[in-house]
């Protein structure tokens, strides 16, 4: 309770009220005991309070003593202060009385003081004016132009104002006025230096073509995080130049280099010109110097690229190196972007300084905007590109080239067919749609002949750029190397101008009216040279080119030329994606025409003159059933690459299954070629082995070409995705044309496969049908047709081994021994008679063929041993043959044994017919019994 009372002591007014309430209680109470109790309670409380007070005083005795001492000192100080104040008042009253008596004398002294102060101020100003030249030189040397401008303006203002009557400053006044009048020239020169030298200095050696600035470059341009003191605005300068308000100013720090921040330094220069009241003149001069400075910049950039190339400019001008032009344009684009950004800073400052100031209006002819800057940049680039793209010569070649090169129905058969002298065509003298009007300013001058002021200026542009050194040979095809970065720069221009760029129209007209025509003419000429003449599809690439290309066998020169032309068109599609549709149309037309040329050449080989009759192998290769059967054989599947690009294993079926398939193929061929007594006409086979070489070359070339086209189609499909190249056409190469080339290549291989077998029939059928095998003993040499067949096979082997890959060569000659054996065995039915000498002669025929095929295939042809064993059965009697069949089982078919027994009876006419019929009956029983046992 005591603590609570100490924390909240009762005021004097509260204590009195409390005491009065006690008195009222005691006086109002009628009960004596109640009053005694109340008195006792109050006395007890008093004693407790007194006790508590004593304890508190005892505990805080020292504090109470200090408080009393401090209070005593404060009271004494207050009394002393009151005494001093009273004395001061008395002194002031006394001074006032004394000053009143000296008023006139004091007024005179005050006037003298004012005069002396004015004289001292004037002397100080004179001293400051005399130091102005030295200070100004120091400021200019350190490029503190704003301080120099403020100094000279203030000095001249003083000389023409308060110090106008000081004759001693006359010479200094003339000097300072003169320096003020010429200072703006220094500022304008410095401004142009910042625009065309300083602004591009940080980008001059970079070739990336990007408009981004590095951290160091961003610091130079003032694009920092705001912590630098170099570009701190002052005097309430708004950051947005488009905001209205009073004209704002900037300041410069004398302790820092003002050129470290390009943005702030330009603000300083423009502010200085504004202070000098020379802003209109500076803007006009800056506008007039845009074009010559850009030309000078192009000249310096050209020299820089030439020096970096490490060659003389004369040698560079004669080389077709568009990469140097690309480097030049990338460097120029970087510099032009920096220049445009600097001009934007200048225009922002002009708006900032004149937006609310009517004392310095700018004339409409003096003020320029960013469209003027970009227009001058486009004019310089247009004339520069006109020189390097050789616009004038490109246009003249365009007028001579066909105008429908990119039409889907374009007929370019004239470049593939045989050239025949024709009537001279009428040549169009000129075309309005290919005029020079829109190609370049110089061409426009030559067409219109209007020499106004602007034309003269553009003509001087062309003249100046024409006299500059060249870093590459002018050519329309230089556009392929520079199109993409040029398009990106044009996009930047259009974003800045918010309108279509004139440079874009120039490039579009050039590509459509000149470049595409030259591309078509170039491709047409190269294909024309490669496919001209009768032997166009017989000319193959040399060994050196083949090794460089990495192809296993020689290819047709025409195919390689067409592939190179299509590859060039594909590169153009990637280089000029906006015109990919036109290039793709050209590719499709070239492919269709070359496909027709190849089919025509193929028909010339397999077709006889104007007749529809073709060689047998060609008809079979086109026959759906035979072609489907041959393509189903395992030997054909081994030629096809697998999904992972590896060759398939040749052992895709067992030897027994392979023999069954070979037997089926042989049966089909024998059934179609040796079922009657007639022989195969010579005109139904290919007798010229060089034509087979041509067919082989066509096969290898078209197979390689089809794979190349498929790669190109896959590449275009991949690159036409929007994320990669949205400008490329979404359509791929026509897969039907690629399939046509692949089908013709397969038909050529099937033709060779069948033609070799037809040649076997052509030479072996007369062996049985026309030769004598019942002659004298001295006629034991191989048949002449067998020797011709061996010679023919050797010639084909020599030709095809050089023209076909080993696996395809193997496909053509493998299983040939089985077919020859089948032909010889089946030919037994055509033999009229045979004796032992004839059997020996037939065996020698078989041996000669076997040795030749062994030399060709490098494997022993065991199937011909089977044919020899078949004819050696003629040494035995029919009964012995039947007994051998019954004991050992049949080695040949029933029809073959039937023909064998029939030949034996024809060769031995003494046997009666019933005996032959009995033997035939026994043969059928033995064969049926063998088949039932097998089952």
TrEMBL record:
Transmembrane residue ranges: none
Organism: Pomacea canaliculata (Golden apple snail)
Cellular component terms (Gene Ontology): exocyst; growth cone membrane; synapse
The Exocyst complex component Sec8 middle helical bundle domain, residue ranges: 266-437
Name recorded for this polypeptide: Exocyst complex component Sec8
Alphabetic keyword roster: Exocytosis, Protein transport, Transport
UniProt lineage: Eukaryota, Metazoa, Spiralia, Lophotrochozoa, Mollusca
Keyword Zinc in annotation: no
Function per UniProt: Component of the exocyst complex involved in the docking of exocytic vesicles with fusion sites on the plasma membrane.
Chain spans, region Disordered: 207-256
Family: Belongs to the SEC8 family.
Exocyst complex component Sec8 N-terminal domain mapped to chain residues: 48-138
GO biological process: chemical synaptic transmission; Golgi to plasma membrane transport; protein targeting to membrane; protein transport; vesicle docking involved in exocytosis; vesicle tethering involved in exocytosis
